[in-house]
Design goal:
By secondary structure, this protein is of the alpha/beta class. The protein folds into two domains: 207 residues, Enolpyruvate transferase domain (UDP-n-acetylglucosamine1-carboxyvinyl-transferase, Chain, Alpha-beta prism); 188 residues, Enolpyruvate transferase domain (UDP-n-acetylglucosamine1-carboxyvinyl-transferase, Chain). 33% of the residues lie in helices and 21% in strands. Helix 1 runs parallel beside helix 7, helix 4 packs parallel to helix 6 and helix 6 runs parallel beside helix 7. The longest helix has 13 residues. The protein starts with 6 loop residues before the first helix and ends in a 16-residue tail after the last helix. The C terminus is likely disordered. It binds uridine-diphosphate-2(N-acetylglucosaminyl) butyric acid (EPU). Uridine-diphosphate-2(N-acetylglucosaminyl) butyric acid binds next to helix 1, helix 5, helix 6 and helix 12.
Length: 409
Amino acid sequence: MRAGGAKNAALPALAAALLSDAPLRLERVPRVRDVETMRRLLAHLGRPSDWRDGALELGAGGVASPDDAPYELVKTMRASVLVLGPLVARRGHGRVSLPGGCAIGVRPIDQHLAGLEALGAEVRLDHGYVDVAAPRLTGARFRFAMPTVTGTENLLMAAALARGTTVLDNCAREPEVVDLARLLTAMGARIEGAGGATITIEGVSSLGAARHAVIPDRIEGGTYLIGAALTRGDVLLDDCLPGDLAPLLGELERAGAEVAVEGRSVRVRRDGPLAPLEVATAPHPGFPTDLQAQLMTLLTQAEGVSTLHETVFENRFQHVAELARMGADIRVEGHVARIHGPAALAGAEVMATDLRASASLVLAGLAAEGETYVDRIYHLDRGYEAMEAKLVALGAAVERLAARAASAP
Ligand code: EPU
């Protein structure tokens, strides 16, 4: 099987279109709801896009348009904040509704704003919006208080058009940041060090046309590989970047799965028992928080007690209560979940609370005795393209149901 393009690389790539009026062609963009939300936001900002031969094309722009990201869009997708850096850098002004809380925690954007201020922008909060203005940003040195993925991306885009040199320290090192730097470089930006903690950007006065293929989604691919280990299955993930999956593959091997990497493919199989794990999520190259919920489902089947320590977000254990309803034995203390395995999972009606939590429930359904109904799968559709079709192709019995009339409120 193949994973689609990475949602979290496609979103900043789309935002980068605001840095120029030149045409942009983005290949391997996943057809997921968050991408559609970002397309709507870009169209509102004067950069409409069209699907053509499986790619997203943005023609030459330049029409006068608003420079605000309204609440209706930001409230459904926090990544909308990615338009702030490009708007300020290109148009001298951007206004974005403050994202507020979300299902996985408070998630402030103070670092995005402090970084833009370091480049000379004036930041004002007004009626739930953040208003950022700068006639022309100026290169500066800025150190992030913690590695933030979209914060690093916002600053990369802003600094690309700033006057002079910007040095960013304590940057996020996620592959999605590196992919954005590749796109910006193709557009004419001068960036060095992406993928490391320090990134240097030499500002240029304008950026041009580019064509870019988004990297494969390591979180989507990783979800199916976890599924193989969970169900004593055998999944061959083609055309992926195994290096990006290394933090997961190491844990799957430690748990007793057989992992084989060959070129751009990874195969995960399991015949024997599953061993418990002790895993802490961490910024890349640590274990990704976006696979924590799915790994937890796997660990319900391990023989012994596992611990999962969530260090990136303060409230990312909402799947625990739903997994418990299916028979999992999980105890949470603060940021640590202790999973007592193996537990016999039984199909149940469960409710998705966020994107990755939904994936963990679908996986649990695959391992459970009987039928599982996962409600509110619009969360799933934000980041997984055609999950049911991909699972069916792998041999699972999964169906998408129209909203069930009898579904409990
Ligand atoms: N943080 C701050 N201040 C900031 C920015 C971040 O305190 O100004 C904190 C956050 O609250 C969090 C930590 O720093 O505790 C890391 O957050 P980060 O900013 O890195 O997260 P993000 O950029 O908002 C991206 C992904 C998330 C993924 C995280 C962590 C995108 C569009 N989203 O979010 O993806 O979980 O990085 O890797 O890239 C998902 O796809 O399901 C998802 C939630």
